[in-house]
Each structure stands twice: as structure tokens, then as C-alpha cells.
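Check the record.
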Amino acid sequence: MLRKSTLEQIISEDLSDLWNALKPEEKRIITDNFKYEHYKKNQIIYAENDTPENLFCLIEGKVKMYKSGIGDRVQILRLYRPVQYFGYRAYFANEPYVSSVAAFEPSVLGVIPMKLVEELIRNNNDLAMFFIHELSRNLGGSDTKIINLTQKHIRGRLAESLLLLADNYGYEDDDMTLRIYMSREDLANLSNMTTSNAIRTLGSFVNDKLILVDGRRIKIIDENGLRKISKFG
């Protein structure tokens, strides 16, 4: 169990941009209302059409945002790593969630009521600008992802997904093995392709000596080669 002092340290150090936008009294209000929740692997944090009520901060673990489309085909929209926060866009839009969020692995989340966040924003221009910046950055990332998923060949899409996992979660101590172990289905959902295509493309990357695969463990042995495939996809 995380102690309150630990949570305060996480907020003040890892959320420095958010923290620095707050006045001393606002920092006290945040720490007094900051709660944590534990989620099991694959447990849903919130579901599509739920009413947004909280700002979530991922403290430990890995989390995915996804949406079910035609024929219940799943598309992973975004991956979160410590320390990132989410769940606020739908609240600001005054609408239900349009996607779902679940834990990739056992995770710990910090939770702050959005009504409280809204009150702070109304009295703090720096905090308002912080959220405007985050929303704008996420919108730009979504635009880029749409182009990549619709215009790149499947090899380019899968290469980009592997690099995204490396950028988000890093490597194990060998500096080669991705620090996240995804199923082939999740890789396919992240890359906008069928599971069978993901399996075949991973096999082709192995044959091209770009990666090594051991179950769900993926070792990247030629990152530059993957970046070329991702770029020219």
C-alpha cells in the first residue's frame, strides 16, 4: 500500500508541470483529495459511455485506451505510462467517455475528482493553460496516428508500434528486450491489423534479423532498420 507521503512525492516530483502550476493552498487541496486505486491485469478502469468523474494519474503499471468498432474489432488508441494522467477530455466536453481504458498489467492509479479540478482551473490561469497544452498535444498525436494507420503498409504500422512500445516503456537491463509483454492480439489492435497479419509480420521481422521473439518477449536487435520501415512504411 502506498503511503500518503509517497503519493505527495509522486505528485510533486513526477507531475512537476502540473504541480508547478498550482498555488500553495491548491497543492494542499490536491494532496488532501488524492486517492489511489489498485487494478488487476485487464481490469477495466472506465468503459465507453460511462460518465466522467475523475482525473486519473497512472502511478505504477501500464494502461491502454481502446475502442470497439465494427464487429467488435478493437483498436488501441493510446498507451499510458507512469506518470501520465487521463480521463479529463470527456468531462471538459460534457459527454460520456467515447472509449474505454484498462490495465495491461497490475497497476496503481491516483484519482482526483474532476469537479475539484474544474474549481481549481476556474481560479488558476496557469492550470488552465496546462490542460489546454495537454489536450492540444494529444490532438496532434491523434492526427498523426490516423494518417499512419490509414496510409502505411502493415510492416510500417507494426514497426511503428514496436518503436512506440520502446519509447513508452523502455527496455529491460539488456537494452534490447521491450519492457512490456503484449499478446499478438494486442499488437494487432495497436497496429490496426488482424492478429494473423501481426503474427506473419513479426515472423518477417525475425527473418530480416530486426527482432527476436520468445513468446511475448520481443527483443529489438536493429532499431534503425525498424525506424526506416516505420518511416517509409
